[in-house]
Amino acid sequence: MPSRKDIEDTTLFRKTTLANGARVITETIPSVRSIAVGVWIHTGSRDEQPEAAGISHFIEHMVFKGTARRRMHQIARRLESVGGFLNAFTSKEYTCFYARALDEHLERAIDTTCDLVLQPRFPEKELAKEKEVVLEEMKMYEDTPEEVIFDRFEGVIYKNHSLGRPILGYPDTVRSFSREQLLAYLNAHYTPDRIVLSVAGNVRHEEVVALAEKAFTASGRSPVAWKRKPAGGYAPEEIVEARPIQQAHLILGARGVDINHPMRSTLTVLNTILGSGMSSRLNQNIREKYGYCYSIYSFVNLHSDTGDVGVYMGTDASRIARAKKLIFRELEKLAARPVSARALNQAKNQVKGYIMLGLESMSNRMMRIGRQELLFGRYFTLDEVLDELDQVQVDHLQETARVIFHPDRFSTIALLPQG
User: How high does pLDDT run on average in the chain?
Assistant: First the structure.
């Protein structure tokens, strides 16, 4: 296994800000023959007005329906015809259009992804059809209890705030979208100062910058004043909902910390000990010891100005009350008793392993540098990330558990079988 120094020495990170404000970041890995390209827009579902809930995600769909330069079928073929692929996703705080290809097709990959973002046409005849596609996507999620319960959870944690709304929006809002609305949102949010082009793989930074400058000549959009609404307060709630399902689903969760908080690395390690993987306390003490569930895990979500933590579990409805007690018992143990030095080191090594293994994927590298630029405005070297993890001590874990895992802060969300 290569050391972290070996990995750092064979890569090169560079950043350039174009004259229009768009940022270009690259990570050069000469030992591969592929590239991953991402065009990131610093806008997501939290930036939508209530009447436009879901518009970020809908735009993500609609840009593939044609641009000023290409028809829909030409977009689909452009990278697939050379063995690559093109896709996109929308999150609460950003949207990403990404491609993978051989390094010889770098220009094609950058040109295609930038074209989607800078010159979409939103053809009227495709609008109604794509609304039906998204409505079917909503139905698919509604048929997936684990997706539904996380939507309910976020609705409680971020009540009366856009962070608490589903990324897909609602049937009524999606049906209401017009071409004019899409264009207005695009022009207001897809501005160069909020766009990052990240590329990882066998690339030269200068070539990527030249291709980006060429692509951005197509955009006449200018920066628009923009400020996100703070997440606001939080009060614990209990929600129990009956649905036509076979298994009960449970989330116990609360507000956490934001992505810049000093506790972030400590919380990552704590989450690993609690509920990440087969060796975690939740899995060993609830699934393996009692056989109460097939799936149980803890989670941490970090946003730019807030965050949330929690535990998800699927179990028989008759075990919900007992399961809840067992989960809180594990949370209270972490607050009451320090973990062993051995457990701490094992958790650190587990997190480090995930990070290091992820670096073997060009897509992961591209995602890593793109997110870092959007969320922090800078690049964190591997050494910086691993050193921050090394600073986590046993007393840090216990203090964080006391603050974050206090039972009085937790909300309970349960989906139960009908009847």
Answer: 95
